[in-house]
Amino acid sequence: xxxxxxxxxxxxxxxxxxxxxxxxxxxxxxxxxxxxxxxxxxxxxxxxxxxxxxxxxxxxxxxxxxxxxxxxxxxxxxxxxxxxxxxxxxxxxxxxxxxxxxxxxxxxxxxxxxxxxxxxxxxxxxxxxxxxxxxxxxxxxxxxxxxxxxxxxxxxxxxxxxxxxxxxxxxxxxxxxxxxxxxxxxxxxxxxxxxxxxxxxxxxxxxxxxxxxxxxxxxxxxxxxxxxxxxxxxxxxxxxxxxxxxxxxxxxx
Length: 253
Ligand code: PEP
Hints:
Distance between the termini: 19 Å
Shape: globular
CATH superfamily: Aldolase class I
Structural class: alpha/beta
Strand order of the largest sheet: 1-2-3-4-5-6-7-8
Number of strands: 8
Bound molecules: phosphoenolpyruvate
Number of helices: 12
Number of domains: 1
CATH topology: TIM Barrel
CATH class: Alpha Beta
Order of helices and strands: EHEHEHEHHEHHHEHHEHEH
CATH architecture: Alpha-Beta Barrel
Strand content: 5-15%
Largest sheet: 8 strands, parallel, barrel
């Protein structure tokens, strides 16, 4: 059975007090309201990680939003996977389109980061997605295939089996434009087919593939009901406890 996951990505939002307060609300609501065995994760800015993992890491898992590809060294301003692991984190988002776009993170760099995250016994949530131009000119399957091949298909089968994939069409992130459930399912099925071709059916069946891009309490249940959609990576709506927890509960509706 694939893991069902709803992961929030707070991005560069919330000061320390605001983060503690929102996370405490989410933990209390998830504790009282979540049914079933799906996982809730919050991927927070680095300054929050230590405190959040102590506050409720059993109920809501903690993730980081990036990690450096080396263990340590003269990389001013950077944070390593080893450091992230040391504060009780379990997940790291790798390859978010904002990292690819604003920080020029290449597929090759993201492959290195993924390896480092796995070496530190953290789970990478590896993001792929096409731009609007790539969707409109119908090259999106090639783009996604190339992101998979360069980013994660160099992993051994054992390592690949540990990762989570997130399909996040760039045109749907923070825009209010959501992929329709048919569009998202089409891509998720394609991703699973590519994984099956590379690693075999059994591995492909077990990989959790999340959808991200303006997911909200109104559209989550329909998206999550699709065969190949195993949950969501949630940006804006993860900054409101009620919305985030309603998306977590969308699996049960
Ligand atoms: C994201 O940034 O991962 C994301 C999906 O953002 P939003 O939900 O705000 O579109």
